[in-house]
Write a structure and sequence with these properties.
The protein has 126 residues and is an all-alpha fold. Helix content is 64%, strand content 0%.
Length: 126
């Protein structure tokens, strides 16, 4: 039986002793991809909603309340698209040293599981 890891130095020594230092970075590429896509979707979603609001309201500026609503709408769109990537990167990061399955395999397992909603766990989706 493997002794439990008590602190961060135990994790580093475990990785070094097993020759799996790169496994400390499991899920990092996926997390960076998720961050890039998240920022992209939020920026363009907010821009889209802002243009739509200005066109329909026929005003030249946006008040604070409308600005908050537009930002919330853009944020909601971002979560819907990026939550599966966030779930995949989290699963990859907590997998055993060197046992990460990769992005596509992790996503496909989440989508094909009996509970299809598992890719949106932690959100408000019913």
């Amino acid at each position: 039986m493997v002794a439990p890891l008590k602190n961060i130095s135990d994790v580093f020594w475990e990785a070094i002793s097993n020759g799996q230092v790169l496994s400390l970075y499991q899920g990092l590429v996926t997390k960076n991809l998720q961050s890039f896509i998240s920022q992209f979707i939020y920026f363009y979603g907010y821009s889209f909603f802002k243009k739509l609001y200005l066109k329909r309201s026929r005003s030249k500026s946006i008040g604070t309340k409308a600005n908050l609503v537009l930002a919330a709408a853009a944020g909601a769109c971002t979560v819907v698209v990026t939550q599966p990537l966030d779930m995949a990167s989290s699963r990859m990061q907590i997998s055993e040293f060197g046992k990460s399955k990769g992005l596509w395999k992790t996503l496909s397992e989440g989508i094909s599981s009996s509970d299809h909603k598992s890719i949106y766990s932690g959100t408000w989706f019913p």
